[in-house]
């Protein structure tokens, strides 16, 4: 492949991009930052190794997820993706807690309505 | 450090564990699997590089988060931590959707109660 059509990985690593380059389909030259992040976190050999271990139809998703993980660590070098997981877990706890409160209010309303119905029935019997 | 007290990283990499080993405080010899996962995903040089870039008081959390990320990828080589994030996001959507439904029910109950109150007031005026 000529210099102008090298994938982002081969361009970053300043090497020739071979026809059978494992990284080329997932790191196009149009998005050099994507490979730069992934390289900084995992390194080219680990990405290549991981992709090679997977069937071809799963490699796009794996490269995408590694890019997301790497971008998370670039944003947050201490917690990375795990920081996002913690925030989401907290958000679930908050929404579940609100749900429990609202369900409680609804149960009170239902009980009041039941009492009113029974009062109405008793009044009509008298 | 003698062979028996080498950290998990130095034992894994079959090297001498120096007094100033950057990895030793976070990869004790008692948990060799933890380093094995992290090494498989990030590689020893990337872990060392990332830890060295951080202030010492943040390194424990960073090593912990890299271990969690690496264990996630060992469980799920395609999606890793990003798979966990997707599941949590779906869980939030589900709980929020349930919350909207329950709030709707509560609003109906409140409206009914308001109507009953108004009916009662009208009846007592007549």
TrEMBL record, chains A, B:
Alphabetically, the GO molecular function entries are: DNA-binding transcription activator activity
InterPro entries reported for this sequence: LOB
**Where does the record place the LOB domain?**
5-106
Can you cite an annotated GO cellular component?
nucleus
Taxonomically, which superkingdom?
Eukaryota
Provide one Gene Ontology biological process annotation: regulation of DNA-templated transcription
As for family, the record states: Belongs to the LOB domain-containing protein family.
Under what name is this protein listed?
A: LOB domain-containing protein
Which species does the entry assign this protein to? Populus trichocarpa
């Amino acid at each position: 492949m000529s210099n102008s059509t090298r994938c982002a990985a081969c361009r970053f690593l300043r090497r020739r991009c071979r026809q059978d380059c494992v990284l080329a389909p997932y790191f196009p030259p149009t998005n050099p930052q994507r490979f730069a992040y992934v390289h900084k976190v995992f390194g080219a050999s680990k990405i290549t190794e991981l992709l090679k271990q997977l069937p071809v139809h799963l490699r796009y998703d794996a490269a995408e997820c590694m890019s997301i993980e790497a971008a998370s660590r670039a944003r947050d070098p201490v917690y990375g993706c795990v920081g996002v997981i913690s925030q989401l877990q907290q958000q679930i706890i908050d929404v579940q807690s609100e749900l429990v409160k609202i369900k409680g209010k609804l149960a009170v309303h239902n009980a009041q309505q039941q009492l009113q119905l029974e009062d109405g029935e008793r009044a009509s019997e008298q």
